[in-house]
Amino acid sequence: MANPPFLFLLVLLNVAADPRAGADAPDSCAGRRIHIRRIPPRFNTDLLRHCGADTFPLTDASAAATSAPPWESLANHGLGPRTHPRSRSWYRTDARLMEPFFHRRILERECLVDDPAHADAVFVPYYAALDALPYVLDPALLDASARHGAELAEFLARDQPRILSRRQGHDHFLVVSGSAWDYSQSPATDPRLWGSTSLLRLPELANFTFLTTESRMWPWQEHAIPHPTSFHPSTLPHLRAWLARARWSRRATLMLFAGGVSRPSRPNIRGSILAECANRTDACAVVDCSGGKCSHDPGMYMRAMLRSKFCLEPPGDTPTRRSTFDAILAGCVPVFFEDLAARKQYGWHLPPARYDEFSVHIPKETVVFGGVRIVEMLQSVPEAEVRRMRKRVLEMAPRVVYRRHGSTAELRAAGKDAVDLAVDGVLRRIRRRTRAQEEGRTETIYAMEDDSVEM
Ligand SMILES: *[C@@H]1O[C@H](CO)[C@@H](O)[C@H](O)[C@H]1NC(C)=O
Ligand SMILES: *[C@@H]1O[C@H](CO)[C@@H](O)[C@H](O)[C@H]1NC(C)=O
């Protein structure tokens, strides 16, 4: 297999030119200039060695969630191998490799600048989730998990300190795969809790913006971006062909649940869904994704999603799930049971004001304790309304797709994808913060302004 560090170097060499235009040409990069911080490979490409089954022999490799990403997932800059040799747009994507992929996509952007003094934002290409693996997988390192990221913080403070001090870190951003909760254990917790680190609690990084696939209730440090799916088209015809297939697919199943099927011990929404589906096999389909069975195999659930009108998206261990984005892509109208599942998270990608047009909301308490039957609720939605919602959800789909790197100019011109919208959002947030800083309104720097998109 190709050596990823070498590929990255090649690309880096090609972006050294400062694209600032001549004095009177309109400046298409105004407000959008990004400087990529140069950090030693031990903070990114060297960490790719953590992939593969042999890396952490002490862990149980049979459980996907508690192991390192498989070595194959490194292919295609982290998109993973194609699902089968002739597949053009489908990959076995492991979400934990979103950091190298995002890095690759930033490298192909316009408006990169070599000189940080000219940059509106500074991207730190740190592969944080991969660097966290030793702490969350190797029991011998558990006690040191508050150190996750500390070495990077030390490096950033020491190396060309003016880059960091210019805006006190407010213009720095990075991508961190996973939920912000996984990185926000209090550094003082003793004994250390298994499975999370304290990256977001490092005081040196407090002013950075972290892009995570799930944010906390009060996300002043992070902002949520869509979980990656397995669909990464590189041409406009490939994107359109998929959307047409989803649009016209025959949907004989009313509702689908794809997820873990173990019955919870306490009453909760997932338990209610499983019980209702067991009774109503005429209207509800279940795809068993227990133990990470579906994580590298989109065929397991995408076909079922194409045949279903509604996809149930209950919270699991955390409020958000990748399946929400698979459903949107499949034109399967998502059913949410709490606002934290998506509406309060992905405001840069999906306009919160329009959720009623492309999703259904059923408060979980009404189902678990109020006797509401999901099947009956969804059966009462008129067919024309379901069609309208499906049309809307497929209009949203391109915004949550992670287009393949090196896509055609035609696809890039057709609309912004998940990476483009994430970068737009982070530039808006950084602009607001650095302006507050310049104007001496320090008390408003961390203000939680609603910067969701409207459409
Ligand atoms: C974060 O920003 C605040 C306000 O600008 C500043 O007082 C503080 O020193 C910054 N923290 C770091 C670690 O740079
Ligand atoms: C399932 O069916 C049984 C027997 O008809 C009924 O008692 C129970 O309430 C049903 N449960 C759900 C969740 O629909």
From TrEMBL:
Q: A Pfam family in this protein?
A: Exostosin_GT47
Keyword list, A-Z: Glycosyltransferase, Golgi apparatus, Signal, Signal-anchor, Transferase, Transmembrane
Q: Where is the signal peptide?
A: 1-23
Q: Name one GO molecular function term.
A: glycosyltransferase activity
Taking every annotated instance into account, which residue ranges of this chain make up the domain Exostosin GT47? 29-375
Highest taxon in the source lineage: Eukaryota
Q: Does the keyword Metal-binding apply?
A: no
- Carries keyword Transferase? yes
Q: How does it sit in the membrane?
A: Single-pass type II membrane protein
Q: Which GO terms describe its cellular component?
A: Golgi membrane
- Provide the protein's localization: Golgi apparatus membrane
The record's similarity note reads: Belongs to the glycosyltransferase 47 family.
Annotated protein name in UniProt: Exostosin GT47 domain-containing protein
